[in-house]
Design brief:
The complex is a heterotetramer of chains A (494), B (331), C (142) and D (108).
Chain A (H helix, E strand, L loop, with lengths): L8 H21 L4 H26 L8 E4 L10 E4 L1 H24 L3 H23 L3 H20 L4 H32 L4 H7 L4 H18 L8 H7 L2 H24 L8 H24 L3 H25 L3 H30 L8 H6 L1 H15 L5 H18 L5 H23 L16 H16 L4 H9 L6
Antiparallel strand pairs in A: 1-2
Helix pairs in contact in A: 1-2, 1-4, 2-3, 2-4, 3-4, 3-10, 3-13, 3-18, 3-19, 4-5, 4-10, 5-6, 5-10, 6-8, 6-9, 8-10, 9-10, 9-12, 10-13, 11-12, 11-17, 12-13, 12-16, 12-17, 13-15, 13-16, 13-18, 13-19, 15-17, 15-18, 16-17
Chain B lengths: L1 H23 L4 H21 L3 H34 L13 H4 L13 H20 L8 H7 L8 H9 L1 H20 L15 H23 L7 H18 L9 H25 L11 H25 L9
Helix pairs in contact in B: 1-2, 2-3, 3-10, 7-8, 8-11, 8-12, 9-10, 10-12, 11-12
Chain D lengths: L1 H24 L3 H25 L4 H24 L15 H4 L8
Classes of the chains: A mainly alpha (494), B mainly alpha (331), C mainly alpha (142), D mainly alpha (108).
Chain lengths: 494, 331, 142, 108
Amino acid sequence: MSPPGAEWLPAGIAGLVGLSLAVAVLATAWPRQAHRIGLLGALAVTAWVLVLSAVFLNAGPDPETAATRVALGGWEAPLGLMLHLDGLSVTLLVLTAVVGLATSLYSLGYVHDRIERRQFWPLWLWLWAGLNMLFLSGDAFNLYITLEVVSLSAVALVAFTGTAAAVSGAVRYLLVNILGSLSFLMGVVLLFGEHGVLDLVLLEARTEAGPTERMAAVLMTAGLMLKAALFPLHVWLAPAHGSAPAPVSAVLSGLVVTGSFYLILRLWLGVFAPLATPAFGILVGLLGVGALVWGSLQALRAGRLKSIVAYSTVAQFGYLLVAFPLMLVDPGTWRVVVFFTVVHALAKASVFLAAGTLQHAAGHDRLADLGDVLRARPRMVFALGLAGVSLMGLPFTGGFIAKYLLLEAGLGTVLAGSVIGVLWVLAIAGGGLLAAAYVLRMVAPSFQRGRADAGETVSLWMDWVPLGLATVAALAGLAGTLTLNTLALTPGAP
Amino acid sequence: MNGLLVLFDLVLLAGIVGVAWRCLASTDLFRAVVLFITFGLLLALAWVRLEAPDIALAEAAIGAGITGALLLVTLERLRSIMAERRSGRPHSPPPDPTGPHALLRALHDPLPEHRTFLPALTFALVVGGLLVTALWHQPQSVGLEPVVDAHMDVSGVDHPITAVLLNFRAYDTFLELAIVLIALLGAWSLGRHDLIPARPAPGPILPGTLRLLVPVAVVTGVYVLWAGSHAPGGAFQAGAILGAAGILLVLARPRQLPMAPGGPLRLGISAGVALFLLVGLYGLAAGHGFLGYAEAWAYPLIILIEVAATLSIALTLVALFVAGRPAGDDA
Amino acid sequence: MNGLLETVAHTLAPGLLYPTGGAILFALGLYGLIRRHHLVLRILALNIMGSGVFMVLLGVAARGEGPPDPVAQALTLTGIVVAVSATAFALALVVHLTRLTGHAVMLPGPPDDDAPVEDISREEHHADGGPADRASSEDRPA
Amino acid sequence: MSVFYLAAALFLLGTILLGLIRVLRGPGSGDRMLAAQLFGTTGVTILLLLSLALEESALVDVALVFALLAVVAAVAFVRQHGLPEPPDTPTHRQHPESTESREPNDDR
């Protein structure tokens, strides 16, 4: 007998897509009420995702059969499109819901201008719907379309303040995104030409290491690396993330970048798994070390609070690349990588939200002149510090557990006799130190003596949401086992 | 016959690649845009040779009707902004003869420095070479044609591409409509629209042409929409044709854009997505799956969705041509 | 002799000729995208790359004996619509950027991270529609 | 008969490629635009000939759409460049067109 609720999963998955789309369409058609629709929608979507994940965990204890596939319109693959839910997608859906809800609440205070509210909410709700659809998609071409939904709405959100810095950041971001999408699409076309199917599960069953697969892997990975701002294809990230409005930066650094990385992981765990070789892993790992060093140095150099946070995203994503060679030695490491991504997304979003509040209070975010406001707003300093501690990986935070597990995997590589493993261990440990340096740089002014000036009044949402999200990020360590067990429910992955 | 076809293919491909190359090597932006319009025309011929009349129809409607006009108007907008900045705005700095301001003087992009030439060429050659190698190694796969063919009788329409677009892969098509809408929301978020730069065109030719052409374009659009269920055509091609007619109307009266009230306009641009979603949710509730139809209802529902999608696409394309949001949308 | 002719005929079949042309267009667009700085030219380069992808897809679909693959053609149609939407949005962004900064080029090199950023949550900020009136104070070289 | 149609289509395609010289060399914007308009007309004819040669009636629709919409770009052009004016009026286009054709505009 199947556990209760399992038969509702397919309808729940399609319903989640339908619900998030309905919220977005409604806000588009009725912009006057967009913020109310957005708030109710955010609550409804979050509740739906939490119930869905509870049903999933209750229903699928067997890792081999845990994936639920839904044929849209009743057409099974290869003719139709399939939605695909497994442990990996559940984890990222929950992450998206938590960060999305926090961003929505924060935006209630942040975007208060009547006209800007009308522009912001529909775009943000489309972005959220696009992310939900991305994590649920099981079809190569549909992934391209959902990626476009995500990137177009993200670019529009970067640009919508209409300032010179934001618009030039957005133009760069848009060109990079189109290039990345076209590269991805070319890979999809190559795979379709060889195998005649688009469904990821069917493709996985048919791929072997031929010239088509190699070229498709290169094109799709490069395109997604461009979108995920993985080193060395990261140049667009800081101008786009650093000059966007705070809630948008939070979503971009926390979720949109993560979405592209999720897709890289999904492809290399499935379709491209036969292509992974140790040499490839070492190359990716070296890129990761480069990202860690370069991003951290830029973060130590930058003069604006939000620029520091934006560059720290480049640095932190270096860990994900360093993890690639570790995955080749111990395939199970990928779950640690996803857990790290989740913690990073939560912490990064809360840092950006806190930075937005400080910028609002002070009227700027130049670090040199931010001391007065920082001294007068201990709550924000606490939020910055709490999230920063998670980014550094100090004990008892989610970041600590993620980095500890990564280090353990790295040491395992060394013990297995790999010399280069020492480099990975050094990179993981050293990256934490560099993170400590730039996090301290952000909060240091509050410990110096000087005038305290709270600046502009801040709405309740903007005051409390960053702290709430930072607390969630720090407490995520408690959910470590749950997350890793959920991720184990991903059929096909090691 | 076959030899001639091969010769035709070769000449056409050489023309396409040559036009694309000259377009990207132009220093004069206007020339690049005219070459791009020609590129679209030659592409339509290539789609015909690849037995894809639907795509050729779309390329014709887009390339000739939408993109060309959009690019020309963009160039003119850039030029008039530059002219305005040069002619003494009090706060704007004087044009720097070496700085980026000089680059845009009269829409002119100087050829790039030679430093990037070899790396860029090597990179492009490697990517192109690897692509060609991979493509030449591919088998003669049949693709999904037999699967689609086997399901045509339950799809509700007689044209396989329409069946794929609005039944078998309706989710993709729904998201495609959403993307057109998001692009417009993005353009609207940048600010209100301003006047389209235009000069007087005295004489009876322009109004006469419009009086004749706009009704014909509307009839053609409706015909292409109707044809979609059994022959090449469909919602997007029809929407693009109607959109082109709308762009003609905008160009005819650039200084008196119709002041659409915000509410109906918003409803108009989101009607296609909204109706599609409603039908999809009904399918979920009725047990056919999200975006599924009962077999007997497939044809009328597909036609209903296509009509709404055509209107929304046409309206959205015209709004994207005008670019900023209308004043009515802020009310 | 006949064998050679057959090989040539096989090579020149539309199913192989057009994908090759598509690959060339993709590479050509990539080259133009790297080399040219004016944003309108970069957008044209991306469009040419996109046309290359569609040509490969349709060429692949036309391989073999029977009628061409309708799924590939439907995907191409969807892709074209996406490309047109992205192009229109990109052009609107370029016009807006020119209005704000006075240029439409994206010069290579790192952008200026420390340029001031306007905060839309502050009271004094209002979206009063006309972006042109904000332009003068925010002029900065790229 | 279809061989004849195909040969005619090939010939017309050749005339398009030949006409590209006018687009490349200009010298005026009007010259370039007019050449592109002419390609539109030629393209319609090629489509009709191909429709006969390949026995594909749907191509007539494509030709119809091309014939109908070719005017959009022309109207956009006329609207922005005005009708031909004496070259010394201030509204005349400020292209460096006269230098353009002499310039080595090839980067290879």
